[in-house]
Amino acid sequence: MVVLNKIYTRTGDKGDTALGNGDRVAKNAARVNAYGTVDETNATLGLARLHATGELDAALARIQNDLFDLGADLCRPDMEKDAESEYPPLRMADAQVTRLETEIDAMNKDLSPLRSFILPGGSALAAHLHLCRTVSRRAERLAVELALSEPVNPAAVKYLNRLSDWMFVAARVANDNGNSDVLWVPGANR
């Protein structure tokens, strides 16, 4: 159970912050950038949910919860100590990646194949989902960059990769199953 009774602590006033294991690092450290951008992705999902209903809204709520799991995973650098820890940290699981894949396949089965790239837009929900897609793609790039120098749970990177795909397909669903997609017309304004 998390209890937050004091919101400001002043401990980060000099530009550092605590990771999940208590280590202090600069606020612009690669790990902080990665999980901070996961948090930003979650905030964009909150905006998208203002326009979502039904099963799509329920799926977005599940993803928002997963993103807190992902942030918790990325803020703990000491993966090699997980097995010996009295309280093992929360780590992303391959089952979460598989769930995204299953949902992508279910959404995609009723969509027509694409014959052009899609411009972000159409409905308000689709536009927001495209924003979610691009922010999650940035989070993925930062997690991959982090993994080049520090241990990162492979399931965390896979999840971010699938998430941007999920957002793309969900945006098509939000655009009347692709019927209201805004298609790119190469060289249209020359």
Can you describe this structure?
The protein is mainly alpha-helical. It has a single domain, classed as Cobalamin adenosyltransferase-like (Hypothetical Protein Ta1238, Chain: A, Up-down Bundle). The protein is built from five helices and four strands; from the N terminus they run E-E-H-H-H-E-H-H-E. It has helices at residues 30-49, 54-74, 94-108, 124-147, 154-174; strands at 16-18, 24-26, 118-119, 182-183. It has a two-stranded antiparallel sheet with strand order 1-2. Strand 1 and strand 2 form a beta hairpin. The radius of gyration is 18 Å and the shape is elongated.
Question: Quick gist of this model?
Answer:
With 190 residues, this protein is mainly alpha-helical.
Structural class: mainly alpha
Q: Could you give me the name of the CATH homologous superfamily?
A: Cobalamin adenosyltransferase-like
How many beta-strand elements? 4
- Oligomer class: single chain
Given as residue ranges, the uncertain stretches (5+ residues, pLDDT < 50) are: none
Biggest β-sheet: strands ordered side by side in the sheet: 1-2
Mean pLDDT: 92
In one word, what is the shape? elongated
User: What's the main sheet like?
Assistant: 2 strands, antiparallel
Return the CATH topology.
Answer: Hypothetical Protein Ta1238, Chain: A
The CATH class, by name, is Mainly Alpha
* Separation of the first and last Cα atoms: 58 Å
Strand share of the residues?
A: 5-15%
Question: What's the architecture in CATH terms?
Answer: Up-down Bundle
Count of the separate structural domains = 1
Number of helices: 5
Q: How helical, in percent, are the residues?
A: 40-55%
- Element-by-element helix/strand order: EEHHHEHHE
C-alpha Rg, in Å? 18 Å
